[in-house]
Amino acid sequence: MAEVEGTVQGHRDGHGFVVTDAGEPWIYLAQQEMRSVLHRDRVRVRVLRYDRKGRPEGRVLDILERRKTPIIGRLLHEGGQWIVAPEDSRYGQDILIPKNATASAAVGQVVSVELTEPPSLHSQPVGRVAEVLGEIDDSGMEIEIAVRKYEVPHQFTPETLAQAAALPEKLRPADRKHRVDLSDVALVTIDGEDARDFDDAVYAEPFKRGRGKSALEGWRLLVAIADVSHYVKPGEALDEDAYERATSVYFPRRVIPMLPEKLSNGLCSLNPQVERLAMVCDMVVSAEGVVDAYQFYPAVINSQARLTYTEVAAVLANTRGPEAQRRAELVPHLLHLHEAYRALLKQRGKRGAVDFETTETQIVCDADGRIEKIVPRTRNEAHRLIEEAMLAANVCAADFIAGAEHPCLYRVHEGPTPEKRVALQAQLRALGIGVHLSDDPTPGEMQAIAQATAGRPDALQIHTLLLRSMQQAIYTASNAGHFGLAYEAYTHFTSPIRRYPDLLVHRVIKAVLAGRRYHLAANAKTRVPELRKGGKPARVHAKPLTQEMTLWEAAGGHCSANERRADEASRDVEAWLKCRYMREHLGEEFSGTVSAAAGFGLFVTLDALYVEGLVHITELGGEYYRYDEARQELRGERTGIRYGVGTRVRVQVSRVDLDGRRIDFRMVREGEAERLLARGDKLRGTPAPATATEELAVVREADRAAKKATRAYKGKPAGSDPARRSRKPGPARPSPKPRTRR
């Protein structure tokens, strides 16, 4: 049997998998095999057998590398022993802590543990408490756990902090050399209300080429981006820390920045009414939205105002409203920006860029860090305006670098694989959509399906299928275009404060402008990190890469992996907060929509709270449900009832597992509430309860009354029972968990 190397991926149920380095199918490890290894260890395994579906099962031959990163968990005292239960259930084993290795931690506190003895087939892992984080209910503890759980760098090195502190507070005369002075141009920043770093400013004005009636009309669009590369130089401490992080990580109420605050919120941020250094993409946009010409140059700018999306949208909607009156001097420039945006929008439609309308949510926390409410994040005209301006600048950056034949990191998003295309075609056919997809689908085909089905009741289901058929976007030195945006070449240029690939793009553009080449320096951190859950192997190239291209590909892999890491950490914190929030709503009923279907149940998103939970298949009623993969739905074999994406349901919050980040719902069927109310009224003669919680209390009280009556008459003569004497049946005994057959 074959021997392969890979990384262990634990599972909360005790078994695990080996994610192979070559990107082959994951190898299953039974619970017994997992006793001697831990999640994320590197191992060599031998494939022993294949199951009936062709999936490999293996045995661990050798442990190549033990993970040395701390494990986060809660300190417990059970059976006379100190143990730490890992917060990440994929570790699968509790860690024994000697009595003298608990530091100052108390029972129940969250701690960070370093292993002193690895696990074996016959013994548990042993460790010592390295850091005490605090109580589980402390404000912000969920973030402290997440940054350590996902190994997010959250402390800058002393060298980085010293270098940042030595930077000037404002521009120096030397900083202005060889730069275009745009300080008199009415550039403005447009961001969200809670934004703290401003890395892009925009400006537009009418533009004419030629004279007389034959002159071509259009707009001159300026996108000025913070010139982070002026301050963060290759090989310096600031650069090494920024590369290691690769991206800023955003949590509710807190940001783990890529750069120290002096840069991210100060010297590099395009704050209003202060001079800042910028790299400018200066474009000429035709009336049809085509970028006819562009140029890049370093500049000095002075942002005229810090505007919000809400404010700008209000100005565009009513140029005589109070918002417009407060910004009267900027209204003409905002209208020009809007006109340039409308032109760019025409080209988006012609390209056939895929545009799915999805609902993004924002968590609003109180002063203690707990969820106060969850609200939809609505996109208005100002959001779309900035998005189109940034897309135009990013495309110009990719075109400029490709034209110079200089290596760079492109943002690549590929369309469906042949396997996913076939599966998508079958799923659409099952839903009655007879659209034929070509062997190599185009973005226009996908967008046409989305538009044609927009008014259907199952539009959400169809758009979800289209979205899942596409591949994840990555950073790579090999340009393969951006499928979703329908661009032949696309890169990230507009956010160097929070994304390292953008910083690299700025360095390349500066090098090309100066007639030089920018070379990545090889170091210990310039490598492709291990694949995480859901990760993909490095792209396979037709011919061997040069040493320089290998470094660029490694940097792309590193930035892509750290982007996934940031997303996972953010989702983990949001899931924890939502679970904490839903504990206050146990027993309550809500209307919701099925957001996904699987063989084990349905995922339902609540309408009012925007929280997703699971309705397990055992909660769907007393019949067998079969999962239809093509239709992405569960179907009852006897009744034919279907639950698919987009189905409207009513559920009750039945269980919240904070450690597992899981919320469970119970299906509440139509007519069940009325039946329960009728039972409760008959048994107790009470008014109808106002809420679902009161309703269940009525039924449970009636249940207890029935049991008490049964015990009271047990063993007595039949004639002493009033119900028997009159030969009338007694009240039906309600179930503690009533159900109705569908």
Characterization of this structure:
The chain is of the alpha+beta class. The chain has 6 domains: 3-65, Nucleic acid-binding proteins (OB fold (Dihydrolipoamide Acetyltransferase, E2P), Beta Barrel), CATH 2.40.50; 71-136, OB fold (Dihydrolipoamide Acetyltransferase, E2P); 158-381, no CATH class; 407-539 and 547-565, no CATH class; 586-668, Nucleic acid-binding proteins (OB fold (Dihydrolipoamide Acetyltransferase, E2P)); 673-725. β4 (42-50) and β5 form a beta hairpin. The radius of gyration is 30 Å and the shape is globular. The protein starts with a strand and ends in a 17-residue tail after the last helix.
How would you concisely characterize the structure shown here?
29% of the residues lie in helices and 26% in strands. The protein is α+β, with helices and mostly antiparallel strands and 742 residues long.
